[in-house]
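#struct-queue
[09:14] JT: dropping the first one here, sequence first, then the structure tokens:
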Amino acid sequence: MDRTRSVKLGLGVWALVVALIALVVLTFLPTPYVIQRPGPVYDTLGTAAGADGEQVPLIRIDGAETFETAGTLDLTTVQVVGNRERTPSWFELALAWTDSSRAVVPLDSVFPEGVTSEQRDERNATLMVDSQHEATAAALNELGYDTGAKVVVVEAVDDTPAAGLLEPDDVITGIDGAEVTSAKQLRQTIQDAGGDTIALTVLRDGEEKSVSITPEKRTQGDATTWLIGITLRTDYDFPIDVTIQLDNVGGPSAGMMFALGIIDTLTEGELNGGENVAGTGTIEADGTVGPIGGIRQKLYGARDAGAQYFLAPASNCDEVVGHVPDGLQVIRTSTLEESLDALEVIADDGDVDALPSCTAS
């Protein structure tokens, strides 16, 4: 009997030792995943740390009258735990899998093969600057300002229809006799041509030129796209000076909240009625709100920061259903105008439940 008990005890000790060794090994083994968790929340109506560490207005406007605001219009962020140089341990992943505010995602989806952390940060910084310009254009367009948009060629790719015909810094002013007002409009006109030759009017070194280009067909799955082989940027000549101060945050997903913050600062009253509102979404100069990543983590970050309402891109709604933290109401939006309409209902103590919801069936 004693011998049997001794054998069982010995086996139990060995099992414990093996389990501990396995745990240690798993702790140090690299993993093919990273963790997304709620990041800092910034009030676009408030302040942020400047380059010298001093608090400065997150949105500063010169050249126009500004007005007092109240409540919050929070932009939300996501933090990534891990990178290609150091991935989370299996133990850390196990903890994240049990936390509804976190997500375990494949490493390659956040840090593509061949892209360093520095390159990713540089790209995200560029996207942030672009989103600030688009947000400023969207806000000023909504308020009736002329933003002086110009569509400019960044590059004509080798071995494409535009190679040798368009050059960097060409300003595209017309297509098939119609004025070009945005890169989005230019691309759509090319698609609508269905492969027919298009006539572009460009300004090159101040001289107007006419260029004819025949797009080439690209097919991916069931989707057909017509391309001429250029990358574009949109330059603006803003009538007022809008400065957005936000360091150490990258990507384009704050665009919509920037636009709302600019509008609130330039208009009397309070867009949000003094309530705490958060949100996310890319934005284009025409007011279109686009999808973002990490929507679930942003919902938790907003709730924890005290928001009662959350403006979410309609294209992200399928990720929201079943993942809304208690105490937060999610409102669906696809344009800047819809976001403003939702804020008007909130400010007027209207029927918020009647607003489009990501969780409605």
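[09:21] JT: and here's the second one, same format:
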Amino acid sequence: MDLDVFVTAHHAEWDRLDRLLGRRRPTGAEIDELVTLYQRIATHLSLLQSTTPDPVLIARLTQLVARARSTVTGTRHASWRDAARFLTHGFPSAVYLSRRWWIPTALLSIALAAVIGWWIAAHPEVQASIGAPSDLREMTRPGGQYETYYSSHPAASFAAQVWTNNAQAAAMCLVLGAFLCVPVLWILFLNMLNLGVGIGLMSSVGRLDTFLGLVVPHGLLELTAVFVAAGTGLRLGWTLIDPGPRTRRAALAQEGRAALGMAVGLALVLFISGLIEGFVTPSSLPTWARITIGAAAELAFLIYVYVCGGRAARSGEQGDIERAARSAELPTAA
């Protein structure tokens, strides 16, 4: 493409759009013209970006298109309606659509924790490498560290600390997924290693039921949130490797926006699991009652994802922001 000829042919349209954007109260006809010029010049910008490396001209048109888009779409403010839409459509649909990632992640991770637990329980030499016999007895005895951990601090502060730690772990899985999945796998391994060590040590002294009675009430919902975050992070990392029919930039932008929304939603889920861990797990309720509360919270979350999320996904919701609030995707030259 001859750049001089292109500029000569279209600079009048660019100047006209610039003048229209400077009008404080454009007429109806001028608004229609502004929209038409915005669409036309957005195409001009796309052609220049794909064929002509002229940074000055591209910068000018980029600024012009951005101003025009802001004028055409208007300034949008978040509202309670947006929060309600996120909770009823955006977040559950994002979790539902990523289920092919987080469900296998959950199954494989639990299997890994079980194998680690069996290996430690069946091999005294492995137990000896974890700690001195006196330290292990202190951890696993009745009233030992595994049991007193959940009541070692006031319930409210303990719940807040647990929520903060788990939210950070989930956020790291979501964010670090962009680094080709490797950090997410490492975070998952560390979490399953900690769980497997507890299973193995408590099994070795015949107190696995006590350990599960302490972990299951909050662990069902907590681990589900971690698995959802990890699965979403892995999905984000795989998008870099295989973006599908979308451009890599568009695919990463879409999946990244969904992941950021997922971080907010999972923070709420982890807040609930933190409350259970702070107030229910160390309570004097019988084990069956504590496990029932945890199972009810987990079941409620799964119903929320599969009913609300499935319905929203089938209606076209993808967990992304509304179309009007997204950056315009310009056509590219073949």
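[09:30] RK: nice, looked through the second one.
[09:31] RK: Residues 163 and 190 are 18 Å apart (CA to CA).
[09:31] JT: good to know. The chain is about 80% helix and 0% strand.
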